[in-house]
Fold this protein.
Amino acid sequence: MTIFAADYTDRLLVGGDALTFKIFNTLLTVIPMLIITWVLLMLFKQTFSKFALSNIFLGTSFVIVWIVVIWMLDREFRSESTEVPASWFGILNSFYIITFAPLISKIWQSKFNPTGPIKFAIALILMGVGFAILSYGSMGIPLGAQTASVSMVFLILAYLFHTLGELCISPVGLSYVSKLAPVKLVGLMFGIWFVANFVANYMAGITGSYIDPIVEEYGMTTFFMIFTIIPVVAGMIMWMLNNTLLKMMHGVR
């Protein structure tokens, strides 16, 4: 997705679109900075008498950070147009997690709370939907094209669905590890969980390296369609195995 953002997404904004992005980017930057500043002030009140020098260094560093942030935002607002960095889309994952985690938590606490296997299935299907959006958005890219100007909306929506899928699987998976693993093996099973994440990310890097030959021969739409079909099919299989998996879980919900 980073490659898609860098080479195939129209990131040059002008007029109202540029202003909207500048305001949104300012909120994403300033609000977390204000929260961290407030936390540091509370910390200074409690620790300044004992660690005055450390607090002064930390406070000075943070003032410098604020100066850099204000300079960056001022420069952005002074320019008539703006080019969104490809790396900027990476912050959407954190933004969506902070925004939707409370909502997902409320759903899990309501009568609509599905079983663990169903949550995993939903997560896989949502991931497939995210790639389906990218597949649809890249339909206009010519076969073998090295660059294109696809709307950023498709990438923003893809990150949304992928993050919603992450919210369905990551905290739920950690919870089930602690519930299902034997007491003496809980630490080991948590380690295996994170090793599995490492292997998955490593394999994602390998599969992503095939983007160029696949795009040259079949097109960008086909590349994303592969990653649409696989998780959706896996999610449907997980859904169908729900009752079987529940029996193997010995009543753990």
User: Anything to note?
Assistant: Residues 15-47 form the longest helix (33 residues).
